[in-house]
Specification:
The protein is an alpha/beta fold and 626 residues long. It folds into three domains: 15-107, NAD(P)-binding Rossmann-like Domain (Rossmann fold); 114-462, Mur-like, catalytic domain (UDP-N-acetylmuramoyl-L-alanine:D-glutamate ligase, 3-Layer(aba) Sandwich), CATH 3.40.1190; 471-624, Mur ligase, C-terminal domain (Protein-Tyrosine Phosphatase, Chain A). The strands form four sheets. A ten-stranded mixed β-sheet has the order 7-8-6-9-10-11-14-15-17-16, with helices on both faces. It has a six-stranded mixed β-sheet with strand order 18-19-23-20-21-22, sandwiched between helices. Strands 3-2-1-4-5 form a five-stranded parallel β-sheet, sandwiched between helices. Helix 6 packs across helix 16 (433-448) and helix 6 crosses helix 17.
Amino acid sequence: MIKVLKKDIPLYDKEILQMGLGLNNGGLGLAKFIAPKVKKLIITDIKTKEELLSSVEQLNDFKNIEYHLGYHDIKDFENASIVLKGAGIKLTNQYIQTAIKNGAIIDTDIGLFFEYSDFPILAVTGSKGKSSTTSLLFTIISNALDDVIMGGNIAINPLLYLDLKKSISAAVLELSSWQLADLALHKKSPHIAVLTTIFPDHLNYYDSMEDYYDDKKNIFRYQKDDDYAIINIKNKYLFTSFLNKEIPSTIFLVCNFDEKNFNDNSINNNYPVKNNQYDNNLNDKGLNIENTNNKCSNKNNLDEKNLIDKNLDGENSYDKSLDERNFANKNLNETNMMVERELTIRQCISYLSEKSPLLLVKKEERIFLFIIDDFCEKVKNFYASIAEYNNIVENLESQDIENFLEPLVDKNMIKKIKVFQLREPYNENIFAEHGKTNMLLAIAASIAFDLNIGKIFEGIKKYAGLPYRMQVVGRKNNIEFINDTTATVPEAVAASILALAKSRNIVLIAGGVDKKLPANSMVRAIVENVCRLYLLEGSGSQLIEDELLNLNYLTFESGFRDLKQLVEKIFNDLKKQDANLFTNIDLNKPIAILLSPGFASFNLFINEFNRGDIFNDAVQKLISQK
């Protein structure tokens, strides 16, 4: 068993070894936090002092730091009693293993943060969407409360806030799979855990997809009954964890039916359901509700035809044999079966129970909230605010609703379910459907935190978006420049393309170093939606090029090394208005030059942010030209 650092262990007389300094806030923040508390801090890193100069200079005030840079000395690890390692350094690392065998305490910055914190922690993880969701959730929570902090895999190392000697009301963290693996050493999980989506990533680091997701599960693995997990059940991995009762806390379910994607891990493709959960001949067609132009319709518009005849899923009748079934209390440990059918709202509702008392869904631009009546006592502030803000949330509870719910849940539970329709909050920085999925997750997490509904919507409207994530950096001559450099996996590129496809002609800059991830979704999205593709040099680009040639997609160029020159070239290509260069240009739509690489950046750039900065600089130079 690996020993970890506990807050009751005095540090003033300790000599600590820190493995990894780096150039970002992780190692530097850890050093700033720990150095003033210990007798001596030894920092070791395989990078040289020259490479780490910007970080070393920020630590000049600490005279008790000794640097062993450009190498790791095994003797440091043999002699260390406490080793603080960087995220991403595996416990199986030979130096860490040496320290463990010699009885050393092993810990990390995130482990220490959870150990030293005495305030609620809300944390977000996922294969994509975690940074945007974290930032949005922080905006909402900090709009309602003072002294809220944000950190983790985003922004500043959260440890530094602990030294400010002021009260902290809550922390909102983004946690990577590596950080969650480290957190498991403390057997701790956040009070509110948000999981955006799971698909293959970092398979150049993990041996398998199962290992990757197993680390992700640490975000809820050590939760208690009074903690919360907010999960996107449109994702197969998360849905399976829900069905298999892997989540020990209270679960809020979120599903955005309007988000279309090519993700093979969506449960719109072979999703797991319980044996006998519903009859296979039940003909669910999907929600059939008139478009309400993003406004709450009145009760007369949500009429008996919509509620009963359509059943919110477009079904004109239902299987009477379902009436007596209590879906909510079915044993979820039954053997899972794979059924090729789409998840529908009626099936989502069937999973409401005391364990999973809240469901938030979006379909055809309408947001519905289903909540178990008894649970309203647990979120008193949120529930009480509903009546006050009837302009943004409408109580749809009625006899019609009861008739609608009757075939879906046990008759005794019908009157225990409340149904509300929420007006979709407008924010120009949340224009893509995957962004709206993130918004639903943030709303659900805010409800779990028992915030006033007015404060939640107010916070959403204040959200300014994140740089490098579908960031509109400029416009010129009906051409929009969008920076999505943090899309470092193919699935994220597919999502970004689909987010823009309806409203814009897409010219894509992509490519880089292969991370050994499936690229089918990205290739398909390109073939069906991209007017022209420009590939940066890299092994991942070669993979995409080969796939496109196999599909006879020829509207691309490859081998580019200079991003600034490439941006200028694309702009000039567009000015030529050459029909041979660009396919399927719709003159009624603007053109978006989208940087969404889908691969790693280290062959041409320092990191993905450097890649994004170069793109931004090139765009600003173009815009400034007359």
